[in-house]
Amino acid sequence: MNLLSRITSSPEICHGKPCVRGLRYPVEFLLELLSSGMNHEDILADYEDLEREDLLAAIAWAARLTRTKRIEPVLA
Description:
This protein is mainly alpha-helical.
């Protein structure tokens, strides 16, 4: 199964933010948990309806999002 197929977006769920499997877990929330230092096992223990592949899908989605052809400087 393609990990990215686990990421869904619907206007009725979390205001259209990308979420995992239509659940109310936005990708950004899962990435924040991971970046705070929580490991996969801790997150899965706290959120029992999540699966390991959901966390991997969030990471894969973020990696895909950061692929750019060129970065333009932002003028302040």
